[in-house]
């Protein structure tokens, strides 16, 4: 084959060398517009996984690289006030970018790759007419991608920080994070060694801080001098140097597809991931291995390109999620500066969600033990520490999330609900929440929803709370709500959000006459002021019955597009009276309902509020609005905010992923200074411990894991070999408190 490579960075060169090594008869040409000795940046960090792939794919290149690696194990976190926290056992390897490129260039020459430096590559479409494969490794500002944007359909997300890539002759002995509080705002330095003669230094800050500091008006030399002055203590008298260094706003690149005919994107042209997890060169070189393998093992180029993308896309997506979490953490670093130093350091180390509490304990058990000691007691898993809300002390930090069961008749909970909630209370959780209990028949989502609009329902709930109190050490919470414009739908397993037949449905109400499903859903009637007063009284009456039924905690459901949630969202609330318009007005009626319920709810029992912290839709509520909403409820006496997201509009576009909703809880907790319950794709006890120890949440609610395993909390204790406070096996189940053997030896 004739193969053209556009771009002579690490990814393009490595691919060229690999494909030529595999099949020397291929004609491989690399175009690079810069000179061979030109390079930007300083050091490159490679993971053990990437190095293993290099060793397997090209042992000769690996041997050359390994001979000059800088290696270290520690991460140092330097905080304002001089606090330093060190975590070991991480294992890094780095080399200079210039050395890496030199080795790759020489490897290409030895293998017979044609290298054309200081020569602009012809357009990919032109090269494709004379080559079997065109590999576009032309970087984040890829001309190839731009020329065929209608095919690749790129999404370019420019972020909110500015950073500059510099070097120094100070050789760091660890990966360095330095947090600096200045009169202009928070700045941070990322630093790591790449040889026995120098280190990479990246200075980063939010754009508004960058502008206030006047750095936007400085050239390279002035910027270097300013950074030297700002981080003089870190540099200990050593100088910084630039290399065509500029202040950059990081751009996250994603593409719907990576290939166009026989042209394929590689590395930053296809995808980027923030430098704070050291992934750009790593991803490009891993792409090179996968693409070379695919071309070698598949019969046709289209099959090879499809296989390459199929293999790499999930890996890249996972890395990009971790990188996104990391970059957003640094964008919002200022919100954590009031955390205790030990917690801020742990928070930084676990920011990407890839490094966790248990993972850190494997790497550096002493570091984690010290953090646990600060949190509660060394050796105690954070999830098994108690938490107090008003007069209620929960035995541990695990919450069984509210989950609709759609199994009631006329709103009446029955034996199913007793077994469902009772089994999860016996399963060890600190707090078990009911599903959304509706305050009126017309407030149900489905015909199977439970209610609390009459005394018969109150007495049925009292039977359940009595069982929980008598037979377990759990608390039980009541979530009250009204379906609003999302009511009168079929049971979930019959068609989620599908409207009931007209003869079974009831009229819907909402803040405005806007259907949840524009494709045929019922249009709600806009509520009058008189109706708002009547509805408020329904909430109050249900709260009274909840107290009489013996619930320990009351939660007001202001999330997921139900009635109170739709008042909060500008996408559902188009009113022109005092309950619509700006957020202050949209908050008014939900706060009135909360105040009225708080007035009748016992003073020693806590009240929480569940909110959708983002609508996941343009023009809707997002983090900033969520902070205001949470602060308003906290000011009115909410003891905690239960932070969920979405389900407010049918055209939402959620960014699903592991613990994808927790950053919103994190922002509310650390900006509003109110306890929060985190929810959303949290499935492991390790994640629960990580969120708590990092100070991103006070309680963690899990739904699906408790459907899979009603005794999830007890099993989490067994898996951590924990039998101390915070966990109590029912005496009837005590024989099962250790993991069963999975096999026997003769």
How would you sum up this structure, described in words?
This protein is of the alpha/beta class and 746 residues long. It folds into two domains: 2-333, FAD/NAD(P)-binding domain, CATH 3.50.50; 356-698, TIM Barrel, CATH 3.20.20. The protein is 37% helix and 20% strand. Strands 5, 6, 10, 11, 12, 13, 14 and 15 form an eight-stranded mixed beta sheet that branches. An eight-stranded parallel β-barrel has the order 20-21-22-25-26-27-28-29, surrounded by seven helices. The longest helix has 31 residues, at 301-331. It starts with a strand and ends in a 27-residue tail after the last helix. It comes from Streptacidiphilus jiangxiensis. One of its GO terms (molecular function) is NADPH dehydrogenase activity. Residues 134-320 form the FAD-binding domain.
CATH homologous superfamily annotation of the largest domain: Aldolase class I
List unreliable stretches of 5+ residues.
Answer: none
CATH top level of the largest domain? Alpha Beta
Strand residue content: 15-25%
Strand element count: 29
User: What is the mean predicted local confidence, pLDDT?
Assistant: 95
**Helix content bin:** 25-40%
- Sheet having the most strands: 8 strands, mixed
The total tally of domains equals: 2
Terminal CA distance: 58 Å
Q: Based on helices, strands and strand pairing, what is the structural class?
A: alpha/beta
3D shape: globular
């Amino acid at each position: 084959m004739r193969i053209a490579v556009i771009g002579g960075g690490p990814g393009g060169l490595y691919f060229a060398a690999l494909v030529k090594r595999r099949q020397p008869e291929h004609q491989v040409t690399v175009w690079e517009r810069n000179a061979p000795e030109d390079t930007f940046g300083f050091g490159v960090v490679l993971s053990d996984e990437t190095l293993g792939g290099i060793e397997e794919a090209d042992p000769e290149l690996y041997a050359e690289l390994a001979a000059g690696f800088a290696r270290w194990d520690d991460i140092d976190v330097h905080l304002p006030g001089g606090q330093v926290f060190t975590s070991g056992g991480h294992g890094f390897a780095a080399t200079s970018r210039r050395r890496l490129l030199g080795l790759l260039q020489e490897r290409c020459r030895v293998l017979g790759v044609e290298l054309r430096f200081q020569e602009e590559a012809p357009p990919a479409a032109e090269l494709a007419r004379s080559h079997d494969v065109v590999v576009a490794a032309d970087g984040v500002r890829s001309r190839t991608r731009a020329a065929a944007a209608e095919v690749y359909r790129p999404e370019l997300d420019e972020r909110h920080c500015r950073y500059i890539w510099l070097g120094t002759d100070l050789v760091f002995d660890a990966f360095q994070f330095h947090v600096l509080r200045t009169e202009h705002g928070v700045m941070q330095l990322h630093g790591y060694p790449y040889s026995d003669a120098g280190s990479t230094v990246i200075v980063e800050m939010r754009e508004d801080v960058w502008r206030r500091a006047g750095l936007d008006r400085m050239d390279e030399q002035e910027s270097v001098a300013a950074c030297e002055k700002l981080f003089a203590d870190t540099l200990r008298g050593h100088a910084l140097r630039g290399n065509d260094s500029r202040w950059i706003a990081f751009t996250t690149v994603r593409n719907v597809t990576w290939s166009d005919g026989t042209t394929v994107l590689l590395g930053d042209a296809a995808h980027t991931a923030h430098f704070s997890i050291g992934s750009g060169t790593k991803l490009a070189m891993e792409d090179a291995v996968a693409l070379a393998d695919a071309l070698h093992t598949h019969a046709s180029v289209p099959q090879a390109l499809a296989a390459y993308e199929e293999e790499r896309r999930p890996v890249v997506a996972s890395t990009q999620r971790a990188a996104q979490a990391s970059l957003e953490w640094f964008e919002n670093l200022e919100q954590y500066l009031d955390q205790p130093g030990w917690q801020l350091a742990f928070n930084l180390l676990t920011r990407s969600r890839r490094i966790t509490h248990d993972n850190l304990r494997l790497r550096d058990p002493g570091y984690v033990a010290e953090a646990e000691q600060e949190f509660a007691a060394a050796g105690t898993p954070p999830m098994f520490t108690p938490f107090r809300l008003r007069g209620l002390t929960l035995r541990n930090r695990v919450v069984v999330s509210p989950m609709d069961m759609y199994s009631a008749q006329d709103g009446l909970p029955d034996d199913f609900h007793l077994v469902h909630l009772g089994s999860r209370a016996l399963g060890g959780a600190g707090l078990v929440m009911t599903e959304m209990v509706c305050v009126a028949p017309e407030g149900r989502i489905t015909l199977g929803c439970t209610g609390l609009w009459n005394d018969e329902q109150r007495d049925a709930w009292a039977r359940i709370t009595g069982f929980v109190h008598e037979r377990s050490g759990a608390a039980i919470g009541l979530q009250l709500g009204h379906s609003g414009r999302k009511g009168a739908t079929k049971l979930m397993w019959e068609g989620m959000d599908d409207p009931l037949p007209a003869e079974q449905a009831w009229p819907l109400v909402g803040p405005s006459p806007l259907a949840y499903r524009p494709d045929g859903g019922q249009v709600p009637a806009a509520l009058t002021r008189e109706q708002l007063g009547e509805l408020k009284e329904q909430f109050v009456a249900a709260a009274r019955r909840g107290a009489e039924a013996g619930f320990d905690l009351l939660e007001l459901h202001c999330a997921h597009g139900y009635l109170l949630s739709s008042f909060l969202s500008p996408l559902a609330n188009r009113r022109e009276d005092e309950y619509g318009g700006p957020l202050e007005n949209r908050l008014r009626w939900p706060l009135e309902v909360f105040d009225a319920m708080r007035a009748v709810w016992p003073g020693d029992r806590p009240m929480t509020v569940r909110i959708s912290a983002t609508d996941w839709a343009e023009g809707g509520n997002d983090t900033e609005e969520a902070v205001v909403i949470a602060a308003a409820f906290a000011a009115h006496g909410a003891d905690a905010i239960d932070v969920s997201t979405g389900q407010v509009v049918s055209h939402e576009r959620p960014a699903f992923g592991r613990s994808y909703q927790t950053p919103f809880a994190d922002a509310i907790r650390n900006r509003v200074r109110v306890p929060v319950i985190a929810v959303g794709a949290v499935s492991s006890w390790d994640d629960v411990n990580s969120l708590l120890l990092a100070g991103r949440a006070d309680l963690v609610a899990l739904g699906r894991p408790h459907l899979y395993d009603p005794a999830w909390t007890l099993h989490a204790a067994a898996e951590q070999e924990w039998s101390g406070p915070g966990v109590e096996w029912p005496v009837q189940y005590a024989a099962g408190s250790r993991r069963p053997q999975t096999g026997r030896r003769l």
